[in-house]
Design a protein that fits this description.
The protein is an all-alpha fold. It contains 17 helices and no strands. It is 54% helix and 0% strand.
Length: 372
């Protein structure tokens, strides 16, 4: 979530299956069955599990979370395991991409319409009661006008984390080249969050998921992301974004793009210091103290990465650390879960958790579609 708004939890649509030990598994005839890493399924399940774990802790400080839930390393998935708008919008993006890809290679004209339609459907859904962000609501209200260009809906002054919390599918769809992945990641952001930092952070988040799904060493991840950001600093994806930059206050498209990438490089530098050297932070400390609370895009990326990279071989611990923070806990844990799931694959998540996550069937169906 991206705004500190009130919410009323409600029953979800989880399977209600009784808990069972061991890792998540695909059963005969079930989406996701088979062998292999299944990075897409792992990432989608991970983001939903992190989202559900952070749902009851968002908008609370660490002492109150500990008082309510006990030691953070022992936090249990709530019952029922409800997701928030973070996973809802991830599923909406995934559905729009599935429609677009059924028509042929991913192109701006093929993608914008289906994703716009799915975002509007989310906006109108009676299940859209999980404290959705104000930016997403404002933009989707404008997207409803069929005569309005989508560039006029994206909020160019908002860099909330509502765009990169949902972008993981674009790091998971197989067969995309670098230009397609980057352009599409920025386009889906621009539909709601048109600030250049929101675009850059979404691009970086999708790239991080892709790197991890393809086997990148987590120890190399920060350097790889910084190199990517520096290499693309003045690259404006006009084919995907059109004249979006003209709605901001920059002198040209390159300056618009550079503003966003500079914010992301600065927060990656903070992340580097938090992970290594004399300024490295203890895993027992609230990670938000080092890299930010996560309400804005670049901080959500960095703090979620910090949680994952502190526990690269303990994915459930990474989710718990992200969920026990003073910041945007569900979005931080959502992103940490996407990174951990892309890195390890589907089998890493306990079946006792994954079997009862809300919208499990949809998550598994998209994962099966995109697993390589």
């Amino acid at each position: 979530m991206t705004d500190a708004t009130a919410r009323t939890p409600r029953p979800g649509s989880g399977t209600g299956r009784p808990p069972a030990g061991g890792p998540v598994r695909g059963t005969e005839g079930e989406p996701g069955a088979g062998t292999g890493k299944r990075a897409a399924t792992g990432a989608l399940l991970g983001l939903a599990l992190g989202d559900a774990l952070g749902y009851p802790t968002e908008f609370r400080d660490v002492p109150s979370i500990l008082a309510a839930h006990g030691p953070w390393r022992d936090m249990e998935l709530p019952e029922p395991a409800l997701i928030t708008d973070d996973t809802q919008m991830t599923l909406a993006l995934g559905a729009g991409l599935r429609t677009a890809l059924a028509q042929g290679p991913l192109e701006p004209a093929r993608m914008a319409g289906p994703v716009r339609a799915e975002f509007i459907a989310w906006y109108r859904s009676p299940e859209n009661d999980r404290a959705p962000g104000n930016t997403c609501l404002a933009a989707c209200a404008l997207l409803e006008d069929p005569g309005r260009a989508w560039q006029e809906a994206g909020q160019v002054h908002s860099k909330g984390c509502g765009a990169n919390m949902r972008v993981a599918p674009l790091g998971l769809v197989p067969g995309l080249d670098d230009e397609q992945r980057a352009g599409a990641a920025q386009l889906q952001s621009a539909l709601t969050h048109g600030h250049p930092t929101a675009l850059a952070a979404s691009d970086l988040t999708a790239y991080a998921v892709r790197l991890l799904a393809r086997g990148a060493d987590p120890a190399d991840l920060v350097d790889l992301l910084r190199d990517y950001a520096n290499a693309g600093r003045d690259r404006y994806h006009e084919r995907w974004l059109g004249d979006l930059w003209r709605r901001a206050e920059d002198p040209g498209p390159e300056a618009f793009a550079a503003r966003g990438w500079d914010d992301c490089v600065a927060v990656l530098d903070r992340l580097e210091r938090a992970l290594r050297g004399p300024a490295a932070v203890s895993p027992e400390e609230d990670p938000c103290l080092a890299t930010g609370d996560g309400w804005i895009a670049e901080e959500a990326l960095a703090t979620a990465l910090l949680c994952f990279l502190q526990f690269p071989d303990e994915p459930v611990t990474a989710l718990r650390r992200a969920a026990c923070t003073r910041g945007d806990s569900d979005s931080l844990a959502c992103l940490a879960g996407a990174f951990a799931g892309a890195h390890h694959g589907a089998a890493v998540w306990p079946a006792a958790w994954a079997d009862r996550i809300e919208h499990r069937a949809e998550l598994l169906a998209l994962g099966a579609l995109w697993d390589e």
